[in-house]
Amino acid sequence: MIDARFFIALFKGSNINVVPVSLFQGYEQKSLIVYRNKKEIIVKMYCDQCKEYSKFNFTLASLNKPGGYRVCCAGCGNELGYVGPREDIEAIAEKHRRDVEALMREMGFDDYFTNPFIMYEMINHVHDMAENKKIQCQCGSYAVTANIGTDKIELICKNCGGKHIIKAASQKDLDIAKERPMIIIKSKLSGKKATGINR
Ligand SMILES: [Zn+2]
Ligand SMILES: [Zn+2]
Fold it and tell me: Which of 45, 110, 160, 164 supports an S-S bond with 155, CB 3.0-4.6 Å?
């Protein structure tokens, strides 16, 4: 008897989920779609960064390849996950979790933060947004610095001192943050200008 399933390890930020997929039933979620045509298994994985699916074809035999396959986004090249036999995929996921935990311990994350995984994710997310000029102050500035609390990140406009707080305590906070196309910091200048007119 052979196991009529193969396994997919999916990155979800710094987390990794192992998903068993039946060869007979396929799989359909937003992040992962699996179906078969006559000869092949088609795996489509969604890239959060590119907002697109990358598609991969596997023959049945290839799904048993020792070590599995590393799957990267066709658009940005980011690692999306691994596809292969159970033991290999579970081993890869386990190693990834240990690596992330070790990194967070090194950075002192687990002593300090309410939810180290969420905070780690949020810092990466905010950093990406800043790099892509998706954080802007109402005063027009893109120059932003950040203070990191135990459960929130405070963004501060370097130009006017305007502040914006991002909560980072739960998966919901992270989901909300990732939905937002831009972060707009409320400027301190607008208030001063208003009083200036009255003088
Ligand atoms: Zn991509
Ligand atoms: Zn500003």
Answer: 164
